[in-house]
Amino acid sequence: MTHRSDRLIDVRALARVEGEGAMHVRVRDGAVAGVRLEIYEPPRFFEAFLRGRRHTEPPDITARICGICPVAYQMSACAAIEDACGVTVPPSLADLRRLLYCGEWIESHTLHIYLLHAPDFLGYPSALDLAKDRRDLVERGLTLKKTGNDLIEVVGGRAIHPVNVRVGGFHRVPAPADLAPLRERLRVALDQALETVRWVAGFDFPDFRHEHEMLALTEPGRYAIESGTVATTGGLGFGVREFEDHVIEEHVPHSTALHAHLAGRGRYLTGPAARYTLNHRWLSPLAREVAAEAGLGAECLNPYRSIIVRAVETVYAVEEAIRLIDCYEPPSEAAVPVPPRAGTGRGATEAPRGTLFHRYELDAAGLVTSARIVPPTSQNQAAVEDDLGRFVAGRLDLPDDRLTAECEQAIRNYDPCISCATHFLDLRVDRG
Amino acid sequence: MTGRRVVIGVGNEFRRDDGFGPEVVAELRARGDDRLAGVQLYVSDGEPSRMLDAWSGAELAIVIDVAVGIGGPGGWSELALPEVAGPQHTASGHDIGLGTTVALARVLGRLPPRVVALVAHGHDLGFGVGLSGGVAEAVRPVADRVCALLAAP
Asked: Which family does it belong to (chain A) (predicted)?
């Protein structure tokens, strides 16, 4: 097959990517003619579904968009609703939100590293096959992930689709005694997270470098998670309220999800590598140290090495959770009042996969009249398509099955959560 | 039966018939049936590590789920190991099926001695709330079957 200049490869299932969709690569006359990330599911269902709902409901409703990153949806929804209502939560509640978010970073990053991505680098078709040979590694990942799950459960009420989050704060806040057992487990988790960085740093990484502008929230003094302003590696900086002035979404024929680009600039990437590149100086000393030990420099432009960044961010999230628990004093109130008012609010936080933006318009009674959600995966689609085109162009001599497998791995570099943007993903490489 | 017993409703109530598992768990919680005393009821999205956490150490795990294309609307099937034990080809992390989770649990030594899956025959997994008619009709009989399984020696 490799001697042909036109080829057709169909891969009907892209395994180990959160959610589902389709990637279609066209090769003509020995050159890549086009790459499309195809999305089939009815778009923006949740945006329509939110209209007419009370202003208190988006955190619980949008949490159902994704089982892997419900906290991100809740946090961005709360931030946007509170912005619309002119409410700022006190630092003690903001810290508790950050603690909850750390749990999600730990569990989401660990899921991706151990069950979805590491098998690629080690030559296993799945985590199941990895577990048959290296049960210890998979158990370490599951234990680390469970610590994140349990942190979410204690602060958020349950591990999936947390029920304790509300606009203005929480329904109830944990007692210090609730958090104390977690602290001890987080100490163990820190060692596991450090071992994870050293483990993944030893993988063989294909030589690949993208040239996309990268975008993330940034917050001087600390690594941005649940708050911050927007910055890009191209020097752009703006507030969350100006997000839609700079990030333009548009329909593309092959996708029912919207594609995003920076106004007047073009495609961009968000996600862990963007966060690291823009904010690594705000990592903890230990996280910076282990990042340097793992070979990460001042920027991460090789998508394959994003697995190292996720591991470093896991170290940071574990450390940050310990710090927040150590200084935790229960807030005097579990939530501050958020009386409704007519207006528009915007919120953005750093989901494990990248910047997640929400905007809500409310009427005077507090009913949602319009909603807009810009998930990280749809922001990344154009850049992923570009990268995959360049990636395939350098590997056209590979046999179909090998090229397909490598394309799958390339897509997993971005940890796409297609279910956040929409649903259903498979991969097709059309060479003929 | 004296060991830990768990009932896990798998699904997402915002994906139509995929809400079957959570709906059965809600039905069980509302019943207050004596046979449910000491039984741990979970709702899960089916993500493998959370499934493993939920049933690790249990002697009986009853999993309530929905599947498309296995039978006519309104019906449901009861599967026991090894029928649910085979790893499947998966499309995504969200789509790692029960069989793969069972296989992973076995490799890791975290598989309950007895796993029973009660699977409704669904046909609408699109976005939206509410079960389709036939699937909704299966909620009570499946809840009845859960109670019967828990009462069995």
From this structure: Belongs to the [NiFe]/[NiFeSe] hydrogenase large subunit family.
Measured CA distances, A402 to A65, A395, A407, B141 (Å) = 33, 10, 9, 48
The C-alpha atoms of residue B108 and residue B92 are separated, in whole angstroms, by 21
Interchain CB distance below 8 Å, B90 and A13? yes
Q: Could you read off the pLDDT of A267-296 as tens digits, one per residue?
A: 999 999 999 999 999 999 999 999 999 999
Phi and psi at residue B82, in whole multiples of 5°?
Answer: -95, 10
Least confident of A131-135, A188-192, A256-260, A381-385: A256-260
φ, ψ at A301 (rounded to 5°): -110, 0
Walking along chain B (153 residues) 10 residues at a time, the average pLDDT comes out as 86 82 95 92 84 91 85 81 55 56 88 91 78 92 96 82
How far apart, in whole angstroms, are the C-alpha atoms of residue B10 and residue B2?
24
Interface residues on A facing B, Cβ-Cβ cutoff 8 A: 13-20, 41-42, 45-46, 49, 61, 64, 67-68, 111, 115-116, 126-128, 131-132, 135, 138-139, 142, 145-146, 149, 159-161, 418-419, 424-426
Q: For residues A32 and B70, what is the distance between their CA atoms, to the nearest angstrom? A: 40
Report the distance separating Cα A406 and Cα A120, nearest Å: 9
What Cα–Cα distance (Å) separates residue B76 from each residue in A186, B40, B56, B120, B143?
A: 42, 23, 26, 4, 12
Which H or E element spans position A320? Answer: helix A306-326
Separation of CA A226 from chain center: 13
Complex-level ipTM beyond the 0.85 threshold: no
Tell me if the domain spanning B5-151 has CATH number 3.90.1300.10. no
- The answer to whether A334 and A316 are in contact (CB under 8 A) is no
Q: What is the pLDDT of residues A230-244, one digit of tens each?
A: 999 999 999 999 999
Cβ neighbour number for residue A282 with a 10 Å cutoff: 18
Alpha-carbon span A212 to A210, nearest angstrom: 6
